[in-house]
Amino acid sequence: MPTGGLTDVAGIEVGHFTDPRRPTGCTVVLARGGAVAGVDIRGGSPGTRETDLLAPVNSIDRVHAVLLAGGSAFGLDAAGGVMRWLDERGIGVSVGNSIGDRLTVPIVPAAILFDLWVGDARIRPDAAAGHAACEAAGRGRVAEGNVGAGAGASVGKLFGIERAMKGGIGTASMVVDGVTVAALVAVNAMGDVVEPGRRRVVAGARTADGDELADTMAQLRRGEWPARLQVGAATTLAIVATDAVLTKAEATKVAQMAHDGLARSIEPIHTAGDGDAVFALATGACGRPAPVTLVGALAADVLARAVLRAVRAAEGLPGLPAARDLDPAQINADNETETPLARHPEPP
């Protein structure tokens, strides 16, 4: 059955690990059969692992998982647990060694976001967390909001964390002409989340009293600059996926185009304090190619919807209210902006 999320793409599984000790965690996207992959990184403070190999000029063209994690740079350790889980199942690139054994090496790109603001910063995702996320992975409906890599995420931090709001995990999908395109995003932006087209702020920086949305871009246009800019304290991470057949270069182009979905729904985006990264996966499960321009355009559209779902599904933490806390109508508001096709995609 369609889920309205990333798992609608055949060959993709999603799992979260949410640490019970403080709001942090990791999210894994598994492609056990391998998926052609690309990546595009535009934020000024990225934290990544194994992304260079995704360049179209490099040899490896398939990955077996992508990991998104909290914990800042410490969270990259969680990728080791994903590799161990895949290795236990013989999933990876087949290689040999000096005594003739055949081994597999899982390919697991990863990216992290900064969530050390909340709780005990000494607690962050590790290899055990990555392994647990794999154990939890499946093809069912993807949990959204305060889970996985989005557990400690926040938005609207340009004027300081004390005026920020809660971010989280969101996902969305659509089917066009038999091709499924979907997105999953961990929204942890320096900027505000806005409704594309309407430019209405949904979650972001609050006024000094904390009771209303301040509208970061409106403040900047008035010359109201923050007294101090925090570097490397945000980052929105996304994975877009399709069941179409794409080359590695085409997957990279889809990742580039999908960033437009972030630009439509987050203002400002790609700042010096964000490490924004978009991965693109193509499982090829539908058995036919699709025009890369079509897939990229749809990926941007569905990613913007996933961003809105993330903040609308989020629940507030002490000092970090959620969109629903300032406006209870936001709880179900995502249904107003999605098309019927996006809510009820055709099966692949």
Description of the molecule:
- This protein is α+β, with helices and mostly antiparallel strands and 348 residues long.
- It has one domain (6-343): L-amino peptidase D-ALA esterase/amidase (4-Layer Sandwich).
- It contains eight helices and 16 strands.
- The strands form four sheets. Strands 1, 2, 3, 4, 7, 10, 11, 14 and 16 form a nine-stranded mixed β-sheet that branches. It has a three-stranded antiparallel β-sheet with strand order 13-12-15. Strands 5-6 form a two-stranded antiparallel sheet.
- A hairpin with a 2-residue loop joins strand 10 and strand 11.
- Helix 1 (78-88) packs across helix 2 (127-135) and helix 4 packs across helix 5.
- The longest helix is centred in the C-terminal third of the chain and has 22 residues, at 292-313.
- The chain is globular.
- Mean pLDDT is 92; it is low at 336-348.
Summarize the entry for a quick read.
This protein has helices spanning 78-88, 127-135, 216-221, 248-265, 292-313, 323-326, 334-337, 340-343; strands at residues 13-18, 25-41, 48-49, 62-69, 93-96, 102-105, 110-112, 154-155, 165-166, 168-176, 179-187, 192-195, 200-203, 237-242, 266-267, 277-282.
CATH fold-level assignment:
L-amino peptidase D-ALA esterase/amidase
Share of β-strand residues: 25-35%
Q: Rg, please?
A: 19 Å
- The count of strands amounts to 16
Overall 3D shape: globular
Determine the number of helices (DSSP H or I, runs of at least 4 residues). Answer: 8
CATH class: Alpha Beta
Architecture, CATH level 2? 4-Layer Sandwich
| Structural class category | alpha+beta
How far apart the termini lie comes to 10 Å
Residue-averaged pLDDT: 92
Given as residue ranges, the uncertain stretches (5+ residues, pLDDT < 50) are 336-348
Report the biggest beta sheet as strand number plus sense, adding barrel if it closes: 9 strands, mixed
The CATH superfamily is: L-amino peptidase D-ALA esterase/amidase
Order of helices and strands: EEEEHEEEHEEEEEEHEHEEHHHH
Helix content: 10-25%
Q: What is the number of domains?
A: 1
